[in-house]
Each structure stands twice: as C-alpha cells, then as structure tokens.
Amino acid sequence: MTAGDGVRVVRLLSRRLPWLDILGIIAIVVAATAVVIKNLPSAETSQLLNVSYDPTRELYAAIDKAFIPQYRDRTGITLDIKESHGGSGRQLRSVLDGSQKAGVVSLATIGDVQALSRRGLVAADWQHRLPNNSVPYTSTIAFVVRRGNPKGIHDWPDLVKADVSVVTPDPRSSGNGQLSVLAAWGSVTTRGGSRAQATSYLKALLQHVTVSAAGARGAADSFALARLGDVQLTWENEALREVAANKDELELIYPPVSILAEPAVAWVDANVTDAKKAACAKAYLDFLFSDAAQEQVARYGYRPVKPQILAAHADRLPPLTLFPIGAIAKDWSDAREQFFGTNGILESLSAPAGT
C-alpha cells in the first residue's frame, strides 16, 4: 500500500462510517504506509580507499568532490572515498604488507605500482588498462630557495657549493627523495658526464643534505616553516604551493634540466574482487583522464597529460627540458634496483667509509 492508496481508502470510508471508526482506520493506514516507506530500497553505498603519495592531499580532495556526485547520479551508488597520504615508499610497503587495503593506488612512480604487480596484487597488464600507460599527470623536481636567491642557486652544480645546505625527503621512504636522486644523477649523465662523474656529484650532494624528512610535505614544512636549509628539492606542484603561500619569502627555480616524473595509478585487483567495487575503482581512475579532472590537475600544479589543457596553463606550467627514466636506466624497475636496491648506488654512497 502506498500513501496515495491510504488517502483514497479514508475518503471512501468517511462517507459510510462514524468519525471514531475513521480515526482507527487512519491509524492503520499510517502504520501500513510507514511499513511501505521503511521497506523501500535505500541508495547503495560503496567505500574505496585511495593510497597515495605525500603531497596529493589537495588534488584528490578536489577530485573526490567532483567525482562522487557524478558517479552517484549515473549509477545510484554513493561512494565513500577514503584517502591515505604519506611517503610513496612507505605507502607502497603498507599495501604490500596488507596493513592498508587499498582499492586504488596513486603512487609517485611507475616502479611503485610495478612492485605491487610483481607481488600479484595488481594485474600484470595494469599499464594497458587506462590511458597514457596509467599515468594521469606528470611532474618534475624543481628548487625552492629563499627570496632573492642569496646563494645564487640556478643549476644542479650550485647545490654542492661549500655554503649550501639542502632539504629533500629520504629516498628510502619518499618518491620525491628518489626522484631527486635520479634527477641529480641524470643532470650529469644527460649532459655528457660519465658514470664516475655522476657518482662523485651524487655523493657530494648527499653530504650537503641537512634535513631528510620522511615525505615531501614534511620536507616542505622544515624548509618553509622551520626555515631550515638554503634550497629544497621538491615536486613542482609542491614548489608552486609553497611559493604561493610564502610569496615574500620563497622563490621557485627551474634548473636547466630535470627528470620527467610519472606518478602512476591502478586499481588493486587483490582488494577489489567484488565486481561492483572493481567497477567503482575503474570509474574513479578513468575520471582522472577526463577534461574536468585534468583541469583540477593543472590547478593543483601537476602537468596534465592532455596537451591542450597543459598548453592552456603554460603561464604557470612552462615548457621544460625533462629527461625520461630511459635516459639513465632501462626502465623504472631497473632504476629502482640499480639506485635503491640492496647494494645499489644509494646504499654504496651512504655506507660509512671502510665498510
């Protein structure tokens, strides 16, 4: 029985029954209508956890706000999207060990997601399931310096001047930290330097690091708020955010050459075995490649992969000379092993003398 049916019954009986009897009938109708309303199917809700790297908080807050109502209108499903942010290496380990049951990951490098794939958590063909090899935006490593650039820092060799102290995240826990190492190495080898020269430069640079935070946002706080160090090596989007928030104190410096950073995304097959949940995860990541999301990407200082949208923001995201990972390693997996694996370049340079 619906509420309308109840009203019609009351009108019919009111012509034939005494008023007191009608009150009893009304009570029955109201009760029946309440049962009908209570048993109506409610909107479906699904929860999705996005495990992401450190500085993407603002970007994904905006992405979620745009995507959730659109998806609800299209499917009737209300998504409850949870976000987790931290150093990309630490986030990767938390998904690998199961302490975070990610539905999707949006990590700092292709190599991070490849590590999940090698463990069977993400399908082997994950790069072919989304546009642009599952890279929805790119970035690079830039410099942030004090206002007026008192130490005259313009290029990578300037970082190892005698009086310069460097702030950068720890490459053992941070994608930003790893990319800074790779960018520093490539700044030598892609401009004609030898492997020995790159090794010597990277060793010197590591000796100039005075603050090594767990993640990009911690490094930013040390540099901008605690005012530690002369230069910060950071994601371009973080540099833009920091300088905008501290216009009278900080400046952004683009070195002549840096690395092409390729943050990658995937749904975690092992954690989204239910077909509806998998569909939610795929739709969420597909949305990142839409024009609406690509505009948000640019707004928050990341480089859209859609050329026309990137070009529209060239005043804030200027063309740069960026070398791909293939310029210094076979691929991201090779770079991870060569630079950050056991007995890799970083470990050998960080080891105490004589070990």
From TrEMBL:
- Which Gene3D superfamilies does the annotation name? Periplasmic binding protein-like II
CDD domains, alphabetized: PBP2_CysP (cd01005)
A Gene Ontology molecular function term for this protein is:
molecular carrier activity
Highest taxon, organism lineage: Bacteria
> What's a GO cellular component annotated to this UniProt protein?
periplasmic space
The keyword Transmembrane helix is assigned to this record: yes
Q: Which GO terms of type biological process are on file?
A: sulfate transmembrane transport
Sequence intervals crossing the membrane: 17-37
Q: Which UniProt keywords apply?
A: Membrane, Periplasm, Signal, Transmembrane, Transmembrane helix, Transport
- Where is the protein localized? Periplasm
Identify its protein family: Belongs to the prokaryotic sulfate-binding protein family.
What is the protein name stated in its UniProt record?
Sulfate transporter subunit
